[in-house]
TrEMBL record:
Signal peptide positions (record): 1-43
Region called Disordered, residue ranges: 529-579
Positions contributing to FAD binding: 111-112, 135-138, 309, 503
One biological process term in Gene Ontology: L-tyrosine catabolic process
Origin: domain of life: Eukaryota
Binding site for substrate: 138
Biased amino acid composition, Polar residues: 565-579
Catalytic activity: L-arginine + O2 + H2O = 5-guanidino-2-oxopentanoate + H2O2 + NH4(+); L-tryptophan + O2 + H2O = indole-3-pyruvate + H2O2 + NH4(+); L-phenylalanine + O2 + H2O = 3-phenylpyruvate + H2O2 + NH4(+); an L-alpha-amino acid + O2 + H2O = a 2-oxocarboxylate + H2O2 + NH4(+)
Pfam family, one: Amino_oxidase
Name of the protein: Amine oxidase
Pathway where this protein functions: Amino-acid degradation; L-tryptophan degradation via pyruvate pathway
Length: 579
């Protein structure tokens, strides 16, 4: 209509004016729009307010904007290409490999497993086509570096529904919708103090942070965080946080904070800055494994699968990396490189023999890394029965063994994340057979949603226990109060020609973006390393291991073990599509 020409971009749907006649004047339409604009402005205010959150400000990485630039534009092209071996094809290894190879370095990635991605692992059901994220599943809006990386790789993101008010909380045999728990948590049977009643669990948690906020203002970030490192979350909540025991128990049961009670309070603050039902999250359309896959296909370098690194020897001019090509015979091969980037998890690094040995402070820092188990159990149903209860995503909480149940969003199928547990809670599934674990999760889903779900279960499901994964040997790092608190710096400084990256080497632990940040930092350092690259040139065969030949990656392309078919060569590409 002519009016539409005067109001470009205003569709009837956007105005919420489905019943408005077409002849409505433009001014009237604008009036309808005002409340929408006001609420939009309010949400922007809210965002601005949040970005001023003193805790968030305190935890901001000073180099965040620099890392964002690297993920956007890449590194400066090198004039002295180096031979770099990256150990591990998780997201940290692949991101570092990509930016380094784009900058002109000769990069080879060695991966112990028979797949890439590490703790990004998407299960794809062959029959239904439904997917389940066995590892990472959501990215907070604040993770701008990860968002940018996905954008650069052409990956589409969509909303991950973290909270749906119609989901359930069931504790002590009392079952309530979460919109009720938000308003009157005391209905769950916790004897809360008067000032704690009528507050949502998140608000109770925020109330407890008041003293910490005062500390932050009085002491400044560095000193306050140092103080917070010394106490557990539990000590803080009951002590300076001044919460009643029932309130703390409520937070443990409803927000799964009990798994974090023994963390240092500083670590808990970092965890909470990324994990809250109040935050907005995204996910990758089509599955998170598209991220490592996209990195792989834009990588100009070799990625060797089934190539576990077992030893490293540093000489004055290079590093010799031994891979075990055919366990259990231990048929070792040696590859040479100018520099190595080690992105394997802490327990996996501990199994690598270093010569000369890692310095004492690094060995101690490795030993102090505290990994918690994380377990996911998916059950496949014939139909998404939760929709009949008006649940369209989000999670229910239960004090039964399954603890947290996450629902697929509409049109995402009926593969239910029937249980997500971490820390001590994951012990409920340890040692069970796959069938026993599926049955245990089914019992809990049936307890929450009724016995009919047993008939709707199609008999299939997946169990992933990360503590039992031979390559990660744990879910993620969460640190209790420690004797020394300088681990972070240890990992940022290379040990000779060996650099470190991965989720455990940066903050906040347990997030994909953290692994990406650590990879970018290491790549910047490697790219700007001063030192004669030519040191290694002209050297031929070195450092054999009993009866096995060595391989110089940069120079012996033809005799590269992959070229000889001794490894399963996942991918080689020289196309550069991004950066
Ligand atoms: C259950 C679960 C849920 C999670 N949910 C989220 C989430 O929702 N959002 C989020 O952002 N993050 C989440 N995370 C965390 C996130 O998945 C990790 O922080 C991130 O994927 C770690 O990447 P990385 O490259 O540091 O380590 P990894 O992914 O572990 O990669 C290390 C690689 O090194 C390989 N390797 C090990 N030893 C050797 C060796 N000797 N030689 C060669 N290769 C070796 C391993 O096989 C692995 O591929 C979750 C993690 C888990 C376990």
């Amino acid at each position: 209509t002519p009016n539409d020409d005067f109001c470009p971009g205003l569709t009837r749907k956007a105005m919420g004016a489905e019943r408005a006649p077409q002849s409505q004047p433009c001014t009237l339409r604008l009036l309808v729009l005002i409340p929408i604009l006001l609420s939009l402005a309010a949400s922007q205010d809210w965002k601005a307010e949040r970005s001023q959150d003193p805790f968030e400000k305190c935890m901001q990485d000073p180099d965040y904007e620099q890392l964002l630039k690297v993920v956007t534009w890449g590194l400066n092209r090198t004039l002295k290409p180096q031979r770099v071996i990256v150990v591990g094809a998780g997201v940290a290894g692949l991101v570092a490999a990509k930016v380094l190879s784009d900058a002109g370095h000769k990069v080879t990635v060695l991966e112990a497993d028979n797949r890439i991605g590490g703790r990004i692992f998407t299960y794809r059901d062959q029959n239904t086509g439904w997917i389940g994220e066995l590892g990472a599943m959501r990215m907070p809006g604040s993770h701008r570096i990860l968002h940018k990386l996905c954008q650069r790789l052409g990956l589409n993101l969509t909303k991950f529904t973290q909270y749906d008010k119609n989901t359930w909380t069931e504790v002590h045999q009392v079952k309530l919708r979460n919109y009720v728990v938000e308003k009157v948590p005391e209905k769950l049977g916790y004897a809360l103090r008067p000032q704690e009643k009528g507050q949502s669990p998140e608000d109770i948690y925020q109330m407890a942070l008041n003293q910490a906020l005062k500390d932050l203002k009085a002491l400044g970030c560095r000193k306050a965080m140092k103080k917070f490192e010394r106490h557990t979350l539990l000590e803080y909540l009951l002590g300076e946080g001044n919460l009643s025991r029932p309130a703390v128990q409520l937070l443990g049961d409803v927000m799964s904070e009990d798994g974090f009670f023994y963390l240092s309070f500083a670590e808990a603050l970092r965890a909470h800055s990324c994990l809250s039902d109040r935050l907005q999250y995204s996910r990758i359309v089509g599955g998170w494994d598209l991220l490592p896959r996209a990195l792989l296909s834009s990588l100009s370098g070799l990625v060797l699968l089934n190539a576990p690194v077992v030893a490293m020897t540093q000489g004055p001019h290079d590093v010799h990396v031994q891979i075990d090509t055919s366990p259990p015979e231990r048929n070792l091969k040696v590859l040479k490189a100018d520099m190595v980037l080690l992105t394997a998890s802490g327990p996996a690094v501990k199994r690598i023999a270093f010569s000369p040995p890692l310095p004492r402070h690094m060995q101690e820092a490795l030993r102090r890394l505290h990994y918690v188990p994380a377990t996911k159990v998916f059950l496949s149903f014939r139909r998404p029965f939760w929709r009949e209860e008006h649940i369209e995503g989000g999670h229910s909480n239960t004090d039964r063994p399954s603890r947290m149940i996450f629902y697929p969003q509409p049109r995402e199928g009926a593969l239910l994340l029937a249980s997500y547990t971490w820390s001590d809670a994951a012990a409920a599934f340890a040692g069970l057979s796959r069938e026993e674990a599926l049955r245990l999760a089914l019992d809990d889903v049936a307890a929450l949603h009724g016995p009919l779900v047993r008939q709707l279960w199609d008999g299939t499901g997946v169990v992933k226990r990360w503590a039992e994964d031979p390559h990660s040997q744990g879910g993620f790092v969460v640190q209790p109060p420690a004797l020394w608190q300088t681990e972070k710096d240890y990992w940022r400084v290379p040990y000779g020609r060996i650099y470190f990256a991965g989720e455990h080497t940066a903050y906040p632990h347990g997030w994909v973006e953290t692994a990406v940040k650590s990879a970018l930092r290491a790549a910047i350092k490697i790219n700007s390393r001063k030192g004669p690259a030519s040191d290694t040139e002209g050297q031929g065969h070195v450092h054999g291991v009993a009866g096995s030949p060595s391989h110089d990656l940069a120079k012996e392309e033809g005799s590269h073990p992959a070229a000889q078919g001794q490894f399963s060569l996942q991918h080689t590409t020289h196309t550069r599509t991004l950066y």
